[in-house]
């Protein structure tokens, strides 16, 4: 989304992504069961659909260029605080550090180890995704609705689209990628016999929560810090903007010992950004769960694209 793309530019990583691994998109298009459509343009600079492996490669290349030592395929097994920092027991041996940033995903073992895990109750959402070798047919991210499930189509390269399904546990009797695609006949016809370009991958339950993002010499970033749903497509943008905020305050915090109190500005920045993201995600989930409400709302947005664009501008800035 635009905010995350701006951070990639400031990091110097955007220019390391080419058309083979990413594709720009201009807005969001909702497609209902009857074919009715609502679409709105995103504010500048728009969005970027990118394969995660391409993004990781670009970020890794940029990190090495500025002097970061990357230890790939190294698993953190445990950590403990010492008098002046931390010690991490890893699959490749002991690592000493002054500060630990845990960006280890939805299930975040480090979040649990720090005692920051909060159990989430209520409906559980899950997702499946796969990429296909096909030229993107639209410069929009498409969200297709069906009973109990949504399909998300994202341009992800000059000859690639990503297709993801999201659904609520218990809303579908049988779940497989092929069965989910069969619920979207027009989308299945559009894909035709396109060759898969990745394996089917899944995630869930999606919603995760933490009691705090910071502790002494420790911070949670990205999905590990908290997550509601992929319905807004803002996960990476939220992660990038919050990581940038943490990076800006960390040098001064380290001078002061990086105690929890010195990291509270990051906690407040995260909460402000997360609050807006969570509000929008829950609003969209409410619509997705209530087709009788969603259908007239989407038709109304289709008749008033200016309103849709105003909502998008509020959500992603």
Automatic annotation (TrEMBL):
Q: Pfam families given for it?
A: FAD_binding_3 (PF01494)
Domain of life of the source: Bacteria
| Annotated ranges, domain FAD-binding | 55-268
- Coiled coil regions, renumbered to chain: none
Query: Gene3D superfamilies from the xrefs?
Result: FAD/NAD(P)-binding domain
Molecular function GO terms recorded: FAD binding
Protein name as catalogued: Oxidoreductase
Q: Which organism is it from?
A: Stigmatella aurantiaca (strain DW4/3-1)
């Amino acid at each position: 989304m635009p905010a995350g793309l701006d951070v990639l530019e400031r990091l110097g990583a955007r220019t390391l992504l080419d058309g083979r691994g990413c594709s720009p998109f201009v807005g969001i298009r909702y497609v209902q069961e009857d074919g009715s459509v609502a679409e709105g343009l995103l504010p500048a600079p728009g969005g970027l659909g990118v394969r995660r492996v391409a993004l990781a490669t670009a970020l890794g290349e940029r990190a090495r260029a500025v002097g970061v030592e990357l230890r790939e395929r190294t698993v953190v097994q445990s950590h403990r605080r010492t008098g002046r920092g931390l010690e991490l027991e890893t699959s490749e041996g002991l690592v000493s550090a002054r500060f630990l940033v845990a960006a280890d995903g939805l299930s975040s073992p480090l979040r649990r180890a720090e005692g920051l895990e909060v159990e989430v109750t209520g409906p559980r959402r899950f997702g499946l995704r796969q990429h296909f070798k096909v030229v993107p047919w639209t410069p929009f991210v498409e969200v297709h609705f069906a009973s109990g499930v949504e399909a998300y189509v994202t341009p992800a390269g000059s000859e690639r689209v990503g297709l993801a399904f999201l659904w609520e546990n218990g809303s579908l009797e049988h779940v497989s990628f092929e069965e989910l695609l069969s619920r979207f006949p027009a989308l299945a016809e559009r894909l035709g016999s396109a060759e898969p370009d990745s394996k089917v991958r899944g995630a869930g339950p999606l919603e995760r929560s933490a009691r705090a993002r910071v502790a002494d010499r420790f911070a949670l970033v990205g999905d590990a810090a908290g997550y509601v749903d992929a319905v807004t497509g803002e996960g990476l943008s939220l992660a990038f903007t919050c990581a940038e905020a943490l990076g800006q305050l960390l040098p001064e915090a380290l001078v002061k010992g990086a105690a929890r109190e010195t990291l509270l500005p990051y906690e407040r920045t995260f909460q402000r950004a997360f609050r807006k993201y969570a509000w929008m995600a829950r609003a969209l989930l409410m619509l997705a769960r209530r087709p009788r409400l969603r259908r007239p709302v989407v038709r109304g947005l289709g008749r008033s694209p200016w309103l849709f664009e105003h909502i998008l501008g509020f959500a992603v800035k």
